[in-house]
Design a protein that fits this description.
It is a single chain. With 231 residues, the protein is an alpha/beta fold. 41% of the residues lie in helices and 17% in strands. It has helices at residues 8-25, 44-52, 63-72, 91-97, 107-116, 146-154, 174-193, 209-215, 224-227, and strands at 34-38, 57-60, 79-82, 100-104, 124-130, 159-166, 200-202, 219-222. Strand 3 (79-82), helix 4 (91-97) and strand 4 form a beta-alpha-beta unit.
Length: 231
């Protein structure tokens, strides 16, 4: 079976089945996990085909690329998530065109998103990106800094702090994958105990979504397993 858009309905079925099995294995409802299709580098036609196949939530990493897709697909009831690193000069585009942002790691970015969110739009759903492996090559705030950032972001008027996002270090060992995800889940519980009201764990991708679901992921961000490897 070829991977890629030629077999997109089958790829979607397989990923949904993986989510269903993972949820059942830890006594969770499959409805507690949202499949977010990450479509960076994918053409508009592929996103439209994915929507026809039943997907409604799409993630993009580059604002300029995403804007063209959002405009071309505005006839469809899609929910757009921004999942990439955020440049200061792109915050207005993101604030005006997305329903979710998963990758906040600086208060200044959150403040700009709040100030630039259109007054007629609902509040922007946001997650803080946690650098759980303290990797210099990745964005995200270190775990120790999450409580203070969560308190500050949670007070901004046009944002709703929904939860935490992570991209843990690559590791083939499922036990280590689960341990990293569990650390993020525990961090969310700790911050909630201090007064936050977060309900979202955006974690798990094509290679490790099962371990993320076991640890409590509510959104899994999947690209390769749906669309094939990017060239």
């Amino acid at each position: 079976m070829l991977m890629g858009p030629q077999n997109l309905p089958e790829n979607i079925r397989r990923v949904r089945e993986r989510i269903k099995r993972a949820a059942a294995a830890c006594a969770r409802s499959v409805d507690s996990v949202t499949l977010l299709a990450v479509t960076k580098s994918q053409p508009v036609e592929t996103v439209r085909e994915a929507a026809r196949a039943g997907l409604a939530e799409f993630g993009e990493s580059y604002a300029q690329e995403a804007l063209g897709k959002i405009a071309a697909l505005q006839d469809l009831p899609l929910v757009w998530h921004f999942v990439g690193s955020i440049q200061t000069n792109k915050t207005r585009d993101i604030a005006e065109n997305f329903a979710w942002v998963h990758s906040i790691d600086r208060l200044r970015i959150a403040e700009r998103l709040s100030a630039q969110r259109p007054f007629h739009a609902p509040p922007l759903n946001v997650c803080l990106q946690v650098n759980i492996g303290a990797e210099a090559s990745k964005g995200g705030v270190l775990p120790a800094a999450v409580p203070a950032l969560a308190q500050a972001v949670g007070s901004l008027p046009h944002l709703i702090l929904r939860g935490l996002m992570c991209i843990p270090p690559a590791d083939p060992d499922p036990r280590m994958q689960r341990r990293r995800f569990a650390e993020v889940a525990a961090l969310l519980e700790s911050v909630n105990a201090a007064g936050a009201h977060m309900d979202t764990l955006s974690m798990g991708m094509s290679a490790d979504l099962e371990e993320a679901i076991f640890a409590g992921a509510t959104i899994v961000r999947v690209g390769t397993a749906l669309f094939g490897a990017r060239t």
